[in-house]
Amino acid sequence: MTLPRQRGLTEQAAEAAIDTACRLLRLPSIRNEFNEIADRAMKDQMTYRGFLAELLMTECDDRSRRRRSERRIKAAGFPREKSLRAFDFDANPNIDAATVHTLASCEWIKKSQPLCLIGDSGTGKSHMLIALGTEAAMKGYRVRYTLATKLVNELVEAADEKQLNKTIARYGRVDLLCIDELGYMELDRHGAELLFQVLTEREEKNSVAIASNESFGGWTKTFTDPRLCAAIVDRLTFNGTIIETGTDSYRLASTRARAEETAKAG
Known about the structure:
Blueprint: H1 11-25, H2 28-44, H3 48-76, H4 97-103, H5 107-110, E1 115-119, H6 125-138, E2 143-147, H7 148-160, H8 164-173, E3 176-182, H9 189-202, E4 207-212, H10 226-237, E5 241-246, H11 250-265
Parallel strand pairs: 1-4, 1-5, 2-3, 3-4
Helix pairs in contact: 1-2, 2-3, 3-6, 7-8, 7-9, 8-9, 9-10
């Protein structure tokens, strides 16, 4: 595609040409910020070279930030991509959109507070956990995602290999540790104690976010020692946010709805 080039473009025509050129050249930052930078250049009486440098550095800085975000998201180890934009809040009225979008600001991570997502399968816990973890990575926080059983198995192996302190320190350093599927399997006392050590290492220093299909009252099935169970619940709830995603699987409801539509169409 060749853009028309002529002298004496009107302001409107010039803006349209810039918009088209930025799309073709894949310069989203210049496209989004051109007007603001141009107004500032006029106010500050920048030279043409200064104005061009400002535009190009804006694009370079944003690309660098995007690359860093992509690296942090990859390092987090999320099993799949999930975003808040893709979450259907209408399908699960138990989850308050305003609360979730407040969490997306990541102030709770800055304050080293915990987050608990509690509810049955198919109610959006893992989606929310991954999406909020992704938001944190995009805002510059170091994030790590893991399944509860995988974390415990890793800790047990580290203990056997006399690498436990090193492993706990590694999990202690990230700004946000996302633990999914906590409560799906019973943990023996040794495994539960090792998980407790990780939580203790992070207490009031770095945030933990968990997703569980069991209410806190049912956690004694996972952590069979009542005292240890109470201590773990205390560390995961103190000054934290608890979101109950409910018992009705919107994923199952969506599948049923599609099946009904298919049957009607047939």
